[in-house]
């Protein structure tokens, strides 16, 4: 992960920080599992992954929400993990 504070959300200047503690992980949903969103892709900022899926995809992947490639993951605001 980067040197930024763990709970700091990366976002576009015109977009509010992302908080998604009650949303379902898009990766889990695709595989009929339950997981609550607590991580987002960088640089896109889409909150899409639970902790378990984020750890599996930590070195990069493709965002299931916007399709952008991400290079790292950040915890979302309000996540309890």
Automatic annotation (TrEMBL):
Record's compositionally biased regions (Basic and acidic residues): 1-14
Region (Disordered): 1-22
Name of the protein: RING-type domain-containing protein
Organism the protein comes from: Chromera velia CCMP2878
Highest classification ranks of the organism: Eukaryota, Sar, Alveolata, Colpodellida, Chromeraceae
